[in-house]
Structure formats: structure tokens, C-alpha cells
Amino acid sequence: MNNIPAPEVLFELADVFKVFGDSTRLRILYTLFDDEQSVGEIAESLGMEQSTISHQLKVLRTNKLVRLRREGKQIYYSLDDDHVKKIIEMGLDHVLE
Amino acid sequence: MNNIPAPEVLFELADVFKVFGDSTRLRILYTLFDDEQSVGEIAESLGMEQSTISHQLKVLRTNKLVRLRREGKQIYYSLDDDHVKKIIEMGLDHVLE
DNA sequence: TGAACATATGAATAAATGTTCATATGTTAA
DNA sequence: TTAACATATGAACATTTATTCATATGTTCA
């Protein structure tokens, strides 16, 4: 796996890491580590504007890091797959070493 | 591991991912996957300005993703540890899935 | 010492990005 | 249908960031 990936893959890869590269998005992801939460719950729990959370959830969604489920008026977000946790764990290992 | 890390850890974590979130830096890291390279070699191989590479190597160095070794006039850079490869592999898995 | 070379660095600029405010969209219940 | 609520979205603004150019620093060799 020593070759540089094709440009479009490389840009996608950079984009994925960019998504993890913001503390607000990391906090949102951590909030979803245990179980799904509605937009309002996340905003409340992080003490941030609903709008901010919504914008960032869109970024997370676009990059397939979270998925959503509608239930009545609320929309519940959850982590999309296990990569998310693993990537964060890897990063944390590096920071804490 | 369900708790949100302390703010300063969180910011560090975001910073690390930020470093991976740029295609130039990813290309530099890939260039170093096999073995060490001098600044000039990297610049040449990527077809970019020496100055650009030097600036980005500094970012990589600051975040402990690469280390350097001086040999005469040249400075050879190499990956600092295995986390680097692993983190990139994880990201790639996510992109390619 | 001085010339040649390799790398680093500072300032400037353009582009990307996170947050806020205001408002739109969509859902529920009366 | 309308009111109330939850979420999404667009525009604006401030901040961050990647690249370039010019130049400084540091090393080798004559």
C-alpha cells in the first residue's frame, strides 16, 4: 500500500480527515458514541446553537459519518459505522502517547 | 471510552486530524511511506515548490507525524511512528467502502 | 573566507471554513 | 387550516489556512 492514491481518492481522504478536524464535530460524534440523539438534545448537551449543530450535522452526514432517523418532529442522529469510533481512537492514541 | 475528552485533549485531537485533512500533506506522508526523503526529493517528486513542502513539513513535524535527520546539507524526513500509517489506512477504508 | 547549495521562515494574498442571525421547511395536534 | 415546535438553510462575517515570493539560515567545499 505504498502508492499514492489517485487524486480524487486523495481529495476524498483529505475531506474525511477535515471533518474530524473540528472540535465541535468531534464533540457531536462523542455525544453519539453511546446512542442516537436528536438535534435539540445535542445542541442542549453541548450548549451550542441549534443552527450550528444542524450545519455541522450536515457536514457529518455528507461524509457518511452519521445517519439519521426521523421520529415525529425530531430527527435522531447516530454514528454511521464503526470506522468513526476507530478513527477517533487512533487519533486519540496518537495525542495521548 | 464514551466520555468526551477534556477540552484541551479535544482540541489537540482536532488539530491532529486537521493535519491529515490536506491533500498536500497526505501526499508528503505517502511519499514517506517507504523510506525517508529529503525536502528537495519530496518537492521534486510531488512537483511542488520547495517552500510549500518546507512549510507543510513544519506542520507535520509540530504534530509529531514526521521526524528529521540531518545529513550534510540535506535534511531527511521520515514518518514518526506507525500511527501515521494506521490512521491513513483507517481513513482510506472509510473512503473506499 | 566566500561561493554554492539545501532548507527554513516571514509577509502577503486568496480561498476555505465555523458561527450567528434570520427565515424557510416540515411535522404534529388542535 | 392554523399554531407550535423541531430542524434545515442561506447570507454575512470573522478567522484560519495553503501557497507564493523573497530572503534568511545553515552546511559544505574550495
Write the layout of secondary structure elements.
The structure is a homodimer of 97-residue chains.
Chain A: H1 7-20, H2 23-31, E1 37-38, H3 39-46, H4 50-62, E2 66-71, E3 74-79, H5 82-96
Antiparallel strand pairs in A: 1-3, 2-3
Helix pairs in contact in A: 3-4
The first copy, chain A, binds a DNA duplex (30 and 30 nucleotides) through α4.
Task: Describe the protein's architecture and organization.
The first copy, chain A, is an alpha+beta fold and 97 residues long. The first copy, chain A, has one domain (7-96): Winged helix-like DNA-binding domain superfamily/Winged helix DNA-binding domain (Arc Repressor Mutant, subunit A, Orthogonal Bundle). Helix content of chain A is 61%, strand content 14%. In chain A, strand 2 and strand 3 (74-79) form a beta hairpin. Chain A starts with 6 loop residues before the first helix and ends with a helix. Chain A binds a DNA duplex (30 and 30 nucleotides) through helix 4.
